[in-house]
Amino acid sequence: MSKVSEYWHGIPRKDIPWYPTVDKNKCIGCGLCFVTCGRNVYEIKNGKADVVNPYNCLVGCTTCETVCPVGAISFPDKELIHKIEKEYAILRVVQEERKKKGTKLELSKARSEAEKIVSQSPHRAEFVIAGHILEKDIPKKLLDLVSQCSCDIVNFKLETPSLKVCFDEKAPSSATFTLVSQKFEDVTECVEKIDKLLEQNNVVVVEHKKIS
Asked: Are 156 and 177 in contact (CB under 8 A)?
Protein backbone atom coordinates (compact mmCIF):
# COMPACT_ATOMS: atom_id res chain seq x y z
CA MET A 1 0.00 0.00 0.00
CA SER A 2 1.31 3.47 -0.86
CA LYS A 3 1.69 6.01 1.97
CA VAL A 4 -1.63 7.61 2.89
CA SER A 5 -1.49 11.42 2.92
CA GLU A 6 -2.21 13.26 6.16
CA TYR A 7 -3.94 15.99 4.14
CA TRP A 8 -6.85 16.12 1.73
CA HIS A 9 -6.35 18.99 -0.71
CA GLY A 10 -4.49 20.94 1.98
CA ILE A 11 -6.96 20.13 4.79
CA PRO A 12 -5.65 18.01 7.70
CA ARG A 13 -7.24 14.61 7.18
CA LYS A 14 -8.18 14.30 10.86
CA ASP A 15 -10.31 17.46 10.53
CA ILE A 16 -12.62 15.55 8.16
CA PRO A 17 -14.83 12.99 9.94
CA TRP A 18 -15.26 10.79 6.90
CA TYR A 19 -14.85 7.07 7.61
CA PRO A 20 -17.01 3.93 7.75
CA THR A 21 -19.01 2.65 10.68
CA VAL A 22 -19.68 -1.08 11.06
CA ASP A 23 -22.90 -2.41 12.56
CA LYS A 24 -21.52 -5.43 14.44
CA ASN A 25 -25.02 -6.94 14.75
CA LYS A 26 -25.30 -7.14 10.97
CA CYS A 27 -21.67 -7.94 10.12
CA ILE A 28 -21.09 -11.59 9.19
CA GLY A 29 -17.30 -11.31 9.06
CA CYS A 30 -17.09 -12.19 5.37
CA GLY A 31 -13.96 -10.04 4.98
CA LEU A 32 -15.05 -8.43 1.73
CA CYS A 33 -14.47 -4.91 3.09
CA PHE A 34 -11.04 -5.92 4.42
CA VAL A 35 -9.98 -7.39 1.07
CA THR A 36 -11.55 -4.64 -1.07
CA CYS A 37 -10.10 -1.65 0.79
CA GLY A 38 -6.61 -0.78 -0.42
CA ARG A 39 -5.90 1.60 2.48
CA ASN A 40 -5.85 -0.79 5.44
CA VAL A 41 -8.89 0.79 7.04
CA TYR A 42 -10.16 -2.58 8.27
CA GLU A 43 -9.06 -5.61 10.23
CA ILE A 44 -11.11 -8.69 11.07
CA LYS A 45 -11.30 -9.13 14.84
CA ASN A 46 -13.32 -11.81 16.63
CA GLY A 47 -15.04 -12.67 13.36
CA LYS A 48 -16.20 -9.11 12.71
CA ALA A 49 -14.95 -6.21 10.58
CA ASP A 50 -13.29 -3.55 12.68
CA VAL A 51 -12.36 0.00 11.57
CA VAL A 52 -8.79 0.31 12.86
CA ASN A 53 -7.46 3.14 10.67
CA PRO A 54 -10.45 5.42 10.03
CA TYR A 55 -8.45 8.37 8.67
CA ASN A 56 -6.83 6.16 6.05
CA CYS A 57 -10.22 6.14 4.32
CA LEU A 58 -10.32 8.10 1.08
CA VAL A 59 -12.64 11.06 1.49
CA GLY A 60 -15.80 10.42 -0.50
CA CYS A 61 -15.13 6.71 -1.10
CA THR A 62 -17.99 4.32 -0.22
CA THR A 63 -16.85 1.19 -2.04
CA CYS A 64 -16.90 -1.03 1.04
CA GLU A 65 -20.46 0.07 1.82
CA THR A 66 -21.47 -0.77 -1.74
CA VAL A 67 -19.97 -4.27 -1.72
CA CYS A 68 -21.06 -5.28 1.80
CA PRO A 69 -23.56 -8.11 1.24
CA VAL A 70 -25.55 -7.44 4.42
CA GLY A 71 -25.52 -3.63 4.55
CA ALA A 72 -23.45 -3.54 7.74
CA ILE A 73 -21.33 -0.54 6.67
CA SER A 74 -22.45 3.08 6.60
CA PHE A 75 -20.86 6.50 5.99
CA PRO A 76 -21.75 10.10 6.93
CA ASP A 77 -23.99 12.03 4.56
CA LYS A 78 -22.07 13.39 1.58
CA GLU A 79 -23.31 16.87 2.48
CA LEU A 80 -20.55 16.77 5.09
CA ILE A 81 -17.95 16.81 2.30
CA HIS A 82 -19.77 19.58 0.40
CA LYS A 83 -19.84 21.69 3.56
CA ILE A 84 -16.08 21.25 4.06
CA GLU A 85 -15.43 22.08 0.41
CA LYS A 86 -17.24 25.41 0.85
CA GLU A 87 -15.76 26.16 4.26
CA TYR A 88 -12.18 25.72 3.07
CA ALA A 89 -12.78 27.17 -0.43
CA ILE A 90 -11.30 23.95 -1.67
CA LEU A 91 -12.05 24.54 -5.36
CA ARG A 92 -9.32 27.18 -5.53
CA VAL A 93 -6.84 24.66 -4.16
CA VAL A 94 -8.09 22.03 -6.58
CA GLN A 95 -7.60 24.39 -9.54
CA GLU A 96 -3.90 24.71 -8.69
CA GLU A 97 -3.63 20.96 -8.20
CA ARG A 98 -5.35 20.45 -11.56
CA LYS A 99 -2.80 22.67 -13.31
CA LYS A 100 0.09 20.80 -11.71
CA LYS A 101 -1.42 17.45 -12.61
CA GLY A 102 -2.08 18.62 -16.18
CA THR A 103 1.54 19.72 -16.54
CA LYS A 104 2.76 16.41 -15.16
CA LEU A 105 0.51 14.48 -17.56
CA GLU A 106 1.75 16.55 -20.50
CA LEU A 107 5.36 15.87 -19.53
CA SER A 108 4.59 12.19 -19.11
CA LYS A 109 2.91 12.09 -22.53
CA ALA A 110 5.87 13.87 -24.14
CA ARG A 111 8.27 11.45 -22.48
CA SER A 112 6.22 8.46 -23.69
CA GLU A 113 6.22 9.81 -27.24
CA ALA A 114 9.99 10.33 -27.12
CA GLU A 115 10.53 6.82 -25.77
CA LYS A 116 8.28 5.45 -28.51
CA ILE A 117 10.32 7.21 -31.20
CA VAL A 118 13.55 5.94 -29.67
CA SER A 119 12.23 2.39 -29.42
CA GLN A 120 11.27 2.43 -33.11
CA SER A 121 14.62 3.82 -34.25
CA PRO A 122 17.21 1.34 -35.57
CA HIS A 123 20.05 0.99 -33.08
CA ARG A 124 21.83 -1.85 -34.88
CA ALA A 125 22.46 -2.86 -38.45
CA GLU A 126 23.71 -6.22 -39.70
CA PHE A 127 25.85 -6.33 -42.85
CA VAL A 128 26.87 -9.03 -45.30
CA ILE A 129 29.49 -7.79 -47.80
CA ALA A 130 31.63 -9.27 -50.57
CA GLY A 131 34.63 -8.04 -52.55
CA HIS A 132 38.33 -7.39 -52.16
CA ILE A 133 37.93 -6.70 -48.48
CA LEU A 134 41.55 -7.21 -47.38
CA GLU A 135 43.12 -5.73 -50.48
CA LYS A 136 41.04 -2.56 -50.02
CA ASP A 137 41.85 -2.50 -46.30
CA ILE A 138 38.14 -2.38 -45.49
CA PRO A 139 38.43 -3.35 -41.79
CA LYS A 140 40.75 -0.37 -41.14
CA LYS A 141 38.54 2.00 -43.11
CA LEU A 142 35.44 0.84 -41.25
CA LEU A 143 37.21 1.37 -37.93
CA ASP A 144 38.22 4.90 -38.94
CA LEU A 145 34.67 5.66 -40.03
CA VAL A 146 32.88 4.48 -36.87
CA SER A 147 35.45 6.24 -34.67
CA GLN A 148 33.92 9.49 -35.94
CA CYS A 149 30.43 8.65 -34.68
CA SER A 150 28.92 7.06 -31.57
CA CYS A 151 28.91 3.57 -33.07
CA ASP A 152 31.02 0.44 -32.97
CA ILE A 153 31.43 -2.65 -35.14
CA VAL A 154 31.10 -6.03 -33.45
CA ASN A 155 31.14 -9.67 -34.52
CA PHE A 156 33.28 -8.96 -37.58
CA LYS A 157 33.84 -12.27 -39.40
CA LEU A 158 35.88 -12.57 -42.58
CA GLU A 159 35.93 -15.52 -44.98
CA THR A 160 38.53 -15.75 -47.72
CA PRO A 161 39.87 -18.59 -49.95
CA SER A 162 43.36 -17.97 -48.52
CA LEU A 163 45.46 -14.91 -47.84
CA LYS A 164 47.72 -15.70 -50.80
CA VAL A 165 44.89 -16.20 -53.23
CA CYS A 166 43.09 -13.17 -51.91
CA PHE A 167 46.03 -10.86 -52.59
CA ASP A 168 47.82 -12.53 -55.54
CA GLU A 169 44.80 -13.57 -57.59
CA LYS A 170 42.43 -10.96 -56.25
CA ALA A 171 39.81 -13.51 -55.24
CA PRO A 172 36.82 -11.92 -53.51
CA SER A 173 36.26 -12.36 -49.80
CA SER A 174 33.06 -12.10 -47.80
CA ALA A 175 32.43 -10.67 -44.37
CA THR A 176 29.65 -10.18 -41.88
CA PHE A 177 29.52 -7.62 -39.08
CA THR A 178 27.09 -5.72 -36.89
CA LEU A 179 27.02 -1.96 -36.45
CA VAL A 180 25.81 -0.97 -32.98
CA SER A 181 25.06 2.38 -31.38
CA GLN A 182 27.07 3.07 -28.24
CA LYS A 183 24.50 5.62 -27.03
CA PHE A 184 21.26 3.89 -28.03
CA GLU A 185 20.82 6.29 -30.94
CA ASP A 186 19.60 5.93 -34.52
CA VAL A 187 22.37 4.37 -36.66
CA THR A 188 20.82 5.36 -40.01
CA GLU A 189 23.35 8.11 -40.72
CA CYS A 190 26.29 5.82 -39.98
CA VAL A 191 24.78 3.06 -42.15
CA GLU A 192 24.58 5.49 -45.06
CA LYS A 193 28.25 6.41 -44.58
CA ILE A 194 29.25 2.74 -44.54
CA ASP A 195 27.23 2.09 -47.70
CA LYS A 196 29.03 4.97 -49.41
CA LEU A 197 32.46 3.76 -48.21
CA LEU A 198 31.85 0.25 -49.50
CA GLU A 199 30.54 1.52 -52.84
CA GLN A 200 33.65 3.70 -53.30
CA ASN A 201 35.81 0.62 -52.73
CA ASN A 202 33.79 -1.62 -55.07
CA VAL A 203 32.66 -3.83 -52.20
CA VAL A 204 29.17 -5.22 -52.68
CA VAL A 205 26.63 -5.01 -49.89
CA VAL A 206 24.94 -8.36 -50.20
CA GLU A 207 22.55 -7.58 -47.38
CA HIS A 208 22.07 -5.17 -44.54
CA LYS A 209 19.13 -4.73 -42.23
CA LYS A 210 18.44 -2.25 -39.48
CA ILE A 211 17.24 -3.52 -36.14
CA SER A 212 15.57 -1.46 -33.41
From this structure: yes
